[in-house]
Backbone:
């Protein structure tokens, strides 16, 4: 598992993502292969919005964005809801997977994993791990 800790690593991730697109691959391919079709995106920032568009181009429509600052988004973004994670209840039922589209420290990552795993019984996958796996599939 690779953690993004600098602007250069962020830029490298975007370049890797573009490389996948040039090889006719999308993050939607990763999810379709695993039969995940009820997806939440954790964080609705720049990466979350890019991810949303990538999933749409691959035929997947995420159910919602999960965002700690949901109040700043007027509760919708690209026609899907933006909702705050809640430790006390499950907001969206029957979720297959959650994609974390946000870079954070290891302690924030652990905290986020604990929060999301307490709310949802599904895989929580970081975007950089998906991109690395798709690259490995192409290179093998």
Residues:
């Amino acid at each position: 598992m690779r953690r993004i800790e600098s602007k250069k690593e962020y830029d490298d991730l975007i370049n890797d993502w573009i490389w996948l697109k040039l090889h006719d691959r999308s993050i939607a391919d990763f999810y379709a292969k695993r039969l995940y079709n009820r997806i939440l995106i954790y964080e609705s920032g720049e990466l979350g919005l890019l991810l949303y568009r990538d999933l749409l181009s691959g035929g997947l429509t995420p159910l919602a964005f999960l965002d700690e600052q949901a109040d700043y988004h007027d509760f919708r973004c690209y026609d899907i809801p933006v909702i705050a994670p809640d430790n006390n209840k499950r907001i969206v039922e029957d979720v297959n997977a959650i994609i974390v589209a946000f870079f954070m420290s290891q302690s924030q990552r652990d905290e986020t994993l604990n929060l999301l795993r307490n709310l949802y019984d599904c895989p929580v996958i970081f975007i950089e791990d998906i991109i690395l796996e798709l690259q490995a599939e192409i290179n093998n």
